[in-house]
Structures are given as C-alpha cells and as structure tokens.
Amino acid sequence: NDDKMSNFFTSFGGVIVAISLYYFYEQLKEMKSVNLPDLNISSATFNVTEEIGNLYNKKILKFRQVLDNKISDINSYFQLHNTGLGTCNNISIKWKYNVDEIKKILNVEYENFPIFISESQHLSFLEPNGKVQIEIPEFYFYCCAPQFNFNETNHRELAKKIAKGEDLQPKLNVEINYYDIKNELIIKNFKVEVQAVNNTIRTRFKPI
Fold first, then answer.
1. Contact, 149 vs 141, CB < 8 A?
2. How many angstroms separate the CA atoms of 148 and 138, rounded?
3. How would you list the strands of the sheet with 59-67, edge to edge?
4. N or C: which end of the chain has fewer CB within 10 A?
5. Which residues, other chains included, contact 58 with Cβ-Cβ below 8 Å and sequence gap of 6+?
6. Can you give the pLDDT at residue 99?
7. Contact between 187 and 175 (Cβ < 8 Å)
C-alpha cells in the first residue's frame, strides 16, 4: 500500500509539474506576442492628371493624394503603420513586379519619366502605434496608370479583358522585412490591388 501511495503521489506530482510547465510556456508565448511589432500599409487613393510640360512638348504625369474625398496638392504616398505593441527596427520595403511585363507597356512620352531602379526604401525604426509616409513605386504607376485607366474611350476594350479573366495591369506585391526588439526577423508580404477609373487610382493591400 505504501508503494502504491508513493507511486500515486509521484505520478500526481509529475502531472502537476507538466501542467505548470505548460502554463509557463503559454505565458512566455503571450508575453512575446504582446511585445511584437506588426507593420501594415493602409489603403490609399490617388488622382492622376496629365499637364503640359516645359520640354519638347512632352506632358507631365502628376500623382496627387486624395484625402477626405478631395484632391490635395500633396504628391502621392502610402502610409506604413506599426499596429503592434513593440518597436520594429531596420525596416526594409521592397516593391516587387515583373519588369519585362512593364517594359511591354512602357510609354516615355512624359517629361521627367522615372528611370527604373530596384524600388525599395529603408527606415531605421517605427515605434508602437507609429505611422510614416513611404514612397509609391513610381516606375510601376507611371507605366501602368495611363494604360489601364478606365475612361470613356477605352472602357469597352478593358471590360472585355476583365470578362476574359485577364489582369489589367502587371501584378504588384510588396515585401516588408523588419526586426523586433529581440532582433528576430519578421517578413510580411502583401498583394496590392489596383483599380483605376476616370483618373482615380484606388489601392488596397491584402496579406499573402
């Protein structure tokens, strides 16, 4: 009987230890998640206009931010938010698209047309609940915005492409790399949904 009681308490003690370790592990995970940063990009709306340039009769393509349904004088931008509770450091933002597809629709009739480079941006840090403006991928939008803008002259042609399931513009994704306070790398990828109608571009970011 003494042996049975001893085995019972030994087994019972092992269960208690296992349960304690489990809850301790869950608490560690919760404490870690509480301090994690979380970067996201908010939706944005741009207005695109063609204006008369100064050189060789070329036009200027202007992108302006739409704020509260009004066209502002501010150049277009996206806004990066840290919706987490920890500071993120060494932030790298890289826009990703197929350059060969872009070159097929390249139109250099505009003055000050951006020369393609690897479109990326770097930020040192962003605190919890912080937000900062980031640049739009100019080369992508300069190429795609005029070509795939729904208007009175091309809406039938573009509607046919949509009916066939064709993408109106080359796909645009963005990858964000950053580090938490423990210097652990976090990678997030987003698909950018782009809709251009009557010189207004609406964008939305979906995690992938």
1. no
2. 15
3. 70-75, 59-67, 44-52, 200-207, 185-197, 172-179, 88-96, 120-126
4. N
5. 109, 110, 111
6. 84
7. yes
